[in-house]
Amino acid sequence: MSKRNQVSYVRPAEPAFLSRFKERVGYREGPTVETKKIQPQLPDDDGNDSDKEDEQPQVVVLKKGDLTAEEVMKIKAEIKAAKAAFLFCHR
Q1: What are the residue ranges spanned by the domains of the chain?
Q2: Distance between CA atoms of residues 31 and 37, nearest Å
Q3: How does residue 1 score in pLDDT terms, banded at 50, 70 and 90?
Q4: Which residues lie closer than 8 Å to 50 by C-beta, 6 or more apart?
Q5: Mean pLDDT of all residues in the chain?
Q6: Are 72 and 59 in contact, with CB atoms under 8 Å apart?
Q7: Is residue 42 within 8 Å of 34, Cβ to Cβ?
Q8: Residue 24 pLDDT > 90, yes or no?
Q9: Neighbouring C-beta atoms of residue 72, cutoff 10 Å
Q10: Mind spelling out the 3-state secondary structure of the chain?
């Protein structure tokens, strides 16, 4: 059997002066190779972050056929209801 397959890395202990320095400056260890691949748990969200009142686009009606703010709200409500019905049916 080859000796190459038996090679492993053992991380040496951190010197005391480095430990004290890191503690003094408030150093935090970054992610390791194993923890980098773990996906953080995101809060459950319906994905409508842009529906906050202060983040809504400005509605400007220039011509007779343009959508008004009320029509946009109605369309958004219909889309939301359709998504909810779709998700409910496909459980």
Answers
A1: 13-89
A2: 9
A3: low
A4: 56
A5: 81
A6: yes
A7: no
A8: yes
A9: 13
A10: CCHHHHCCCCCCCCCHHHHHHHHHHCCCCCCCHHHHCCCCCCCCCCCCHHHCHHHCCCCCCCCCCCCCHHHHHHHHHHHHHHHHHHHHHCC
pTM for this model (two decimals): 0.38
pLDDT in tens, 31-71: 887 777 777 776 665 555 556 777 877 878 888 888 888 88
CA distances from 82 to 76, 77, 78, 85, 86 (A): 10, 9, 6, 5, 6
Alpha carbons within 13 angstroms on the beta-carbon side of residue 44 total 0
Distance CA 80, CA 46 (A): 10
Burial of 27 by CB count in 10 Å (0-12 exposed, 13-18 middle, 19+ buried)?
A: exposed
**pLDDT, tens only, 5-15:** 888 888 899 99
